[in-house]
Amino acid sequence: MFAAFRVLIERHPALRANFAHEHGRPMQKTAPAEDSVSRADVALFDVQDWSWDDIHTLIVSEYRKPYDLTHDPLVRLRLFRRGPCRWVLMKAVHHIISDAISTFTFIEELLAVHEALRLGRTPRLPPVPARYVDFLNWQNQFLAGRDARRMLDYWKAHLPADIPALGLPTDRPRPPVQTHNGASEFFVLDAGLSARVHALAREHDVTVFMVLISAYYLLLHHYSGQDDIVVGSPVTGRTQEQFAKIYGYFVNPLPLHLDLAGQPTVAELLGRVRDVVLGGLDHQEYPFVLLVEELGLKHDPSRSAVFQAMFILLTHKVATEEYGYRLEYIELPEEEGQFDLTLSAYEDESDHRFHCVFKYNTDLFLAETMRRMASHYVNLLDALTRVAPAEPARRLEMLGAAERELLVDGWSGAGRRTAVPDVPVHRLISRIAAERPGSVAVSAPGENGPARRMTYGELDVRSRALARRLRGLGVGDGAVVAVCLEKSPELIVTLLAVLRAGAAYLPLDPRDPDDRLASLITHTGAAWFVTDAAGSERFASPACRVLTLDDAPAKSGVRAGDASDPDLPEPDVDMDAPAYVIHTSGSAGRPKAVLVSHRNIASAYESWRTEYRLERDATVHLQTANPSFDVFTGDLVRALCSGGTLVLVGRELLFNTARLYGVMRQEGVDCGEFVPSVVRGCSPTASTTAAGWTSCA
């Protein structure tokens, strides 16, 4: 076998190539045949008494040995003797001089030469019709012609004007500069599913490749939420017959863009994929590296250009029965992740099953994520081959039955029943105030100065007094009171007072423009607008009475002593009445108002209390959200209904990372809810030391 290997080294100049830098430029050098043959990288290992695990480990070790491109032979051959008639043959080659077709050609020629030498004959292989340099010359002539311009125009029209980056959710933060550390996750499609893939291809007049990549597009759509997806897929690059058996790297990736918008049916999906693939094949000769230059894309060092996911279907076959030998392929894991994700498949003619592997970047994904993704791909492909052609393709089931049950019934808590809440959250806060009036309810750290603190006793007295004043001003059951105050203890007092008065509050952001505030107030029919002195000067509306906290007692007609009298009854609250009104951002059109009932929020609190262990493990709550954001009320309820401390953080402090970390340590924060932009600014020490649990909204 080693003699046959040396014959091939002499036959193909690419196997004798090395690469060096000269004057700052890469330069290929091809060694004379006799020199390369004499230093061929071969080795024999006798492993007859070894376990297969140990043999496999040795094979992988030899396969992964690095190459010195300047000095080392770039192809190596290893033989592992397992028995008198059982051998493992490992051929490793650097991609710079070889591609898959080169490897298949190598195996075919190696067996032919070995058989001739074994029989004492002179090996006779067909003459090599061309060299790799002939391909480069042909390509230069092509690029100077009209066909190249026509193909370039196609690709520019085929790809979106703004090529979308594939937003797969990653297990680890994406490194600022792309890495190529990788691993492999192997899986096999069973014979039944493999047969249905062929049947679906015949039914819709598409290829097996098109069926497999269709399921891949659906998988990437489900994971990323994107309709526009670009998947790279390599072609052999050997469109000219004379280059069919030439050694070298000819592969050219095609950026296949699919638009999944419009709820396509299964039949429509396969039709779209067919058009995309056939269009790409008709224009495959334009080099991808030049296309990237022509597109003029902004360079993003953290990811590959144009596409970050690849699909490969190996269709070239080497006879598994040849010269009396039976060949069995061994799958070796790869440790390089050229793209975020690559799905590669081939059909084994011996078992008529598709053997697949996800190659992935280990700086982005964990192995368990890839195992889950492999099962999701199989589920989607299985559904694709079973449903009617008119079924919406994007609704095909990705989750298995056990996983769906876990998500829907297990993790959601749907199977757990809690008592129906019958006490509104402001009454729960009053109970805490009665039990421990001296405990700190609200803390408002300043950017530079000391924190302002309010105890539960103070919060209870002040909110009770303001509620009486609001009732005296005419605020009644079911009314909507707009509250536009800076984040402060007074804001918390006001919100509780509105609830105690039997009304619902509408939280507004003082930084919003006047016309937006007016629109939101009009939209909800708010008859009262509670603000500070600065807010009252900028807002006036005949349909809404403006009230500042300073002048509330004077305008109410109710004496301060009466207003704070604890013996005055507090109105009963209908649990199904609204507690507050929240608006959507309006990014998809006009903002929409959502009424949240007392029962809704009380029920949410009961779940938070149990799942987050609020009365035991999480007692100091960092509050970062804008009051007009729904998360704000969630933070307030979690903290104050459980007897904890609500730490109010303003915007100016939120983005001062060092100061924010100092506040978290000083206040003894146990938990917080962050948006991703804030989390990215926090150091690992801050996020892990100061936070018991974190959540991103």
- Helix run count: 25
* Strands, total number: 25
What structural category do the secondary elements indicate? alpha/beta
Report on the biggest sheet: 6 strands, mixed
Indicate the CATH architecture of the largest domain: 3-Layer(aba) Sandwich
Terminus-to-terminus distance: 62 Å
Which oligomeric form is depicted? Answer: single chain
CATH top level of the largest domain is Alpha Beta
Determine the fraction of residues in helical runs and give it as a percent range: 25-40%
Residue-averaged pLDDT: 88
Gyration radius, in Å: 35 Å
Quote the beta fraction: 15-25%
* Major sheet strand order: 6-13-12-9-7-8
Total domains, how many?
3
Query: How would you name the CATH homologous superfamily of the largest domain?
Result: ANL, N-terminal domain
Give the overall form.
elongated
Which stretches of 5+ consecutive residues score pLDDT under 50? Answer: 553-564, 683-697
**Could you say what the CATH topology of the largest domain is called?**
Rossmann fold
Question: Can you walk me through this structure?
Answer:
The chain is an alpha/beta fold. The protein folds into three domains: 2-118, Chloramphenicol acetyltransferase-like domain (Chloramphenicol Acetyltransferase, 2-Layer Sandwich), CATH 3.30.559.10; 181-317 and 334-404, Nonribosomal peptide synthetase, condensation domain (Chloramphenicol Acetyltransferase); 425-696, Rossmann fold. It is built from 25 helices and 25 strands. Helix 7 crosses helix 8, helix 13 packs across helix 14 and helix 20 crosses helix 21. It is elongated.
